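#onboarding

Welcome to the new folks! Below is a worked example of what a typical request in this channel looks like: someone posts a single protein sequence, and someone else replies with the predicted structure as tokens. Don't worry about understanding the tokens yet, we'll cover that in week two.

Example request:
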Amino acid sequence: MKTLLAAILFVGLAVLLLGVNIFFFHRPFPDGEISTNPEMRKRGIKCAKQEELELLREQKGKKVCDGNFSDACASCGLYNKE
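Example response:
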């Protein structure tokens, strides 16, 4: 029983200390979203979805598929029939 109470007290104290700026000083929680964080933008860090879209835009107009594709793949827009 003493161990359980000590663990609950320890976890509660840790949460309180980790949240001091948020609970008492009402500072905003740090923005962890890559696409909206100005510091990550400044460093040139992009999310995987944004990088993938940029790569697809670069490949658009080039023959990316080799012609061995299903009907579902043909509609992706990356295969140009010559």
